[in-house]
Amino acid sequence: MSLTGKSSDGTGHVGTLTAKQSATLKNLWSALYEIQEKGTVTIIPEPAPVPETPAPAPAASGWGGGWFGSSTPATPVEPVVEPPLTITLEEIGLTPEQLRTALWNNVLGDNPDSLVLRFLRARKWHVGNGLSMLLKAFKWRQDENVEDVKIMGDDELNEKYPKFKDQLEMGKFYVHGTDKAGQPVVYLNVHLHRPGDQDYKTLERLTIYLMETGRLLIQPPVETVALVFDLSNFGLGNMDYNLVKFLVQCFEAYYPESLGAIVVHKSPLVFWGVWKIIEPWLDPVVASKIRFTSTDQELLEFIPAQHLPTSFQGVGLDQYKYQYLAPVAGENDKMQDKATRDVLLKEWDSVTVQFDVQTKAWIAGDEIESSKRSELAKELHLQYYKLQPYIRARNQFQRKDATGHSVLQEDGTVEWVYKN
């Protein structure tokens, strides 16, 4: 299995687009602006490519066919034409203002094209389906109030969602280091989970927290994460079908193209009955990213030994032991500085408006504006990380450990430490 975190030309990521992919990206941005301005957009799909007309079949025998005569003419092939697709914000359940807010709240410090391209790739470059999927994801974020996992600190989340911090403290999951493709690796210790030990809403919120926090740990040009489900000591009492369904739904519908690989490690015999139930739920693309490993040694195919914790005995060289870094008094004081926040928000909004202007010029065919647009995407990244301490609570990756080191730096870069 190849864990593909980085992209080559033509794979549909920022900086790798073909001319046709770039044109499709423009079409989706154009549709996004139109529905924001008018409340509705009608997308006319391009006809599907017409297969080559097969050569006439030769006659079975005699002079009437073959080289010297006529044969039955081939049936002409008609192009497949889809009907126009009309999408309205009212049907989705969003206002134009909510759409714009959701867009930029979702972009964070990323290149805006990266977000849009995720949905295009997930829908095989179909503009209408990609836009519909994007808008439905925005609606879900609004309904689920995803922003509260950013605005609220760990203690506040624990107060609202009982036992939230318990999940973090026990190491039910943790993120540490990268795999061979540069993807952050999320380790899930399934034997620590029992469905009845906490409220299901807490688990949903924890999953969203993991998604939103994990995004900050992905470093361009990598755009995906790897999951390692460690099934050591797994029993049926650890199985949580509802949580698995929600996790699958998140990766397929709300955070598409964010999952690079899944490793199911040391699955016992009892798991295979569970797998027969889970497998039909998976999109074929997601299912294709799953690999099963039975020994720690096999993990080295995906994760360098220097990055793999020594808990994977005999092969892991990194003397890392998970420890939850608890909130520190005063770590979110900047969120109370509303005057500075408002100034930085105004600067951020100004850059997003400039990006919109340049994008519309780019759509209209002014390729000179393309370089200006790229520079604005970089400026958005810088502006976001200046703004972040004033609008987003700190997480454990931003807190310093006993050595004074934090994984996530103030400028958004990530520094993993491996103790070999």
UniProtKB/TrEMBL annotation:
- Pfam families under this entry? CRAL_TRIO, CRAL_TRIO_N
Q: Name the domain of life this protein comes from.
A: Eukaryota
The record's section on InterPro entries has: CRAL-TRIO_dom (IPR001251), CRAL-TRIO_dom_sf (IPR036865), CRAL/TRIO_N_dom (IPR011074), CRAL/TRIO_N_dom_sf (IPR036273), PITP/CRAL-TRIO (IPR052432)
Q: Which residues form the CRAL-TRIO domain?
A: 161-320
Q: Gene3D superfamilies this protein is in?
A: CRAL-TRIO lipid binding domain
Please list which residues make up the signal peptide: none
Protein name, per record: CRAL-TRIO domain-containing protein
Source species? Entomortierella parvispora
